[in-house]
Amino acid sequence: MPVQTPRRPASLERPAASSPVKPPVRTNTKSTKTKRRKDPMWARLTVVFGAVLMMVSGGAIVGSKALLNQATGDIETTNLLGTASKTDAEGGKSLDGPIDLLLLGVDARARWDVNDTRADTIIILHIPATHDQAYLISIPRDTQVQVPSFKKNGYPGGTAKATEAFFHGAQNGGGWAGGAQLMAQTIKNLTGISFDGAAIIDFNGFKGVIDALGTIRMCVDQEVRSHHMTMVDGKPTWNAQAKKMGGKKEPVIHKVGCRNMEGWEALDYSRQRYGLKNGDYDRQRHQQQLIKAMAKKAVDTGMNNPLKLNGLIKAAGKAFVLDTGSANTADFLFTMRGVAANDLVLLRTNNGTFSGNNEGREVLNPLSQDMFQAVKNDKLGQFILENPTTLAKEK
């Protein structure tokens, strides 16, 4: 295994964010947004977009570091990690070693308060020091965690579900930055993993990314009725809105089988957990499949076309918020050029089934804790060979 070199000298440590991050797009709001220089469509280019979409298949989409430098040279990133970023001893600034990213999915509809947001999707993306593979590990939203105190907004700390850590950090003006920072510290305490970068994914904005790709191929493994959407006169509509409308109403039912899905359908399917055999574990797996399907489609449709790429980037700018630590964004993305769509390995905790305590909250079993230790030690490949049951079913 390559020896890690210091990656983040003390002189380059980032100060804590001075103001909360606002969601990428909001209607009917006049709140001040972070100032960004130059091309706004690149302003929220993210780790997921770079690692999973742009840089797949050996740079087939972007092609060269020079182009990346030109596109990302003046991006201002936001501190989403706080004290959960890697220290000198854990890696520092160089990107030669393993890379660990925290991906947080939020449901932030325009009508909802920014501070009243939870992270229902929590994924650790691990790239080994060889930089030729990527592993996605989902943490159950209802996992019992010890949330540390947070000086930024006065939260005293306490026992909570993992999804609630983001909420507690976002309260009292903490915003998305506060939510992500408290979540990152909570996950670090839970797993022992420090992070090189983080991204917040607004799953409602994610629809535009899929639409820019056209459709993506998803396989439904068990029929499920949507708890979020209703067809009104043949058009998918949020339930809250559908209740106020007239017209012919039919349930949205995702039937078993593989097919090309539009953005709304793929996202709605990947967000279901009620009515599935393994509840949130099945949803975690479907969301991992969604990310992998997007990566495959990006390559299959030839997103090296500048015009197509332009549209994809614009859509991504509405869906993501990024933190690449103190590393240059272009360097960060270029480092992951060897990770192809087929190199994304989907993993599961607790053997993909509920493992709870007397309070009905998830508790990570010893094997899952060993898996996170393998991530920290960059020995995940070996761990999977010895524990193949941690692999998630692809279809």
Automatic annotation (TrEMBL):
PANTHER family with a match to the protein in the record: POLYISOPRENYL-TEICHOIC ACID--PEPTIDOGLYCAN TEICHOIC ACID TRANSFERASE TAGU
Coiled-coil positions: none
Keywords for the protein's UniProt record, in alphabetical order: Membrane, Transmembrane, Transmembrane helix
Highest taxon above the source species: Bacteria
Family indicated by similarity: Belongs to the LytR/CpsA/Psr (LCP) family.
Organism lineage string: Bacteria, Bacillati, Actinomycetota, Actinomycetes, Micromonosporales
Entry annotated with the keyword Transmembrane: yes
Keyword field contains Membrane: yes
Protein name: Cell envelope-related transcriptional attenuator domain-containing protein
All residue ranges annotated as the Cell envelope-related transcriptional attenuator domain in the record: 118-298
Chain residue ranges for the region called Disordered: 1-37
Transmembrane segments: 41-62
